[in-house]
Amino acid sequence: MTARPFDRTTPPHVITLVIAAATSALPTNLFLPSLPGMAVYFHADYRVVQLAVSLYLAATAVLQLGIGPASDRFGRRPVMLFCLAVFIVSTIAATFAPTIEILLFLRLFQAFSAAGMVLSRAIVRDTVGPDEAASRLGYITMGIAIAPMIGPVIGGLLEELYGWQSTFHLMLAFGIVAFALVYLDLGETNSNPSTSVSSQIKTYPELFRSRRFWGYSATAAFTSGAFFAFLGGGPFVATELLGLSPSAYGLYFALISLGYVLGNFVSGRYSRALGINRMMLLGSVVACVGTVLSILLFAAGYYHALSLFGPTFFVGVGNGIALPNANAGTVSVRPHLAGSASGLGGALQIGGGAALAALAGALLTIESGPYPLLAVMLLSSVCSIATSFWVMQVAHRKGDL
Question: Domain 14-184+196-395, CATH 1.20.1250.20 — does that match?
Answer without folding.
Answer: yes
